[in-house]
Structure formats: C-alpha cells, structure tokens
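To fix ideas at the outset, we first show an illustrative case, written as a sequence plus integers encoding its fold:
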Amino acid sequence: MLKRPVNVGFSGGEKKRAEMVQMGIMNPKFAVLDETDSGLDIDALRAVGAGINRIMRAPDKGVLLITHYQRLLDYVTPDKVHVLYRGEIVRSGGPELAHELEREGYAEAVA
C-alpha cells in the first residue's frame, strides 16, 4: 500500500472519502469543494456529508461547496446559497433557495 499511487484504482466514493481524510489531516481554514457529490452513491454521499460537517462546521472555518443538486445539501445544510450564471451571482438566499431550484430548475433563477 505504501508504494501505491494516491487514488489509483479507487472508486468515486473511495476517492471522495480519501479527500475527507486528507482535509481532516490538513485542517484548512477554508475549503473549496467542487462538485463533491459527483459520482457518489447514497452511502458515499452520506459519508462525505458527515465528513464535511465534522471537519468544516466550526466558527473559524469556511467552505465554498459547489454543486448542481440538492442531494448533498440534504446532509450539509448551507448557510447561504448563490446561483452563479455567466460569471455573476444572479440570485442569493438561504437553504430554501436550493429546494426551490430543485423543484423549479435554474431557468427561473437566471431569468
């Protein structure tokens, strides 16, 4: 295992879990997590959500969590939600905005 390249041969869920371990070890003040939910099954999604909450939910930490779907936000409740369109924030709100987007799509949000 010591000579094995990092993440080679891992599934998507295993890679994301390994990233959570790395984040826990590095203990960053701020993390940018881009589409962390991509390719995860339900169990891996739950584990990643728990990892984000355990590691990054502290008053002295911050996370920019980029996602296109509500499913990760079922495990990590955002403080703020922003819709980015063509490089600009076109809409902002609380967690309820993510639920609205899931129901109605992005077309109304960027109109």
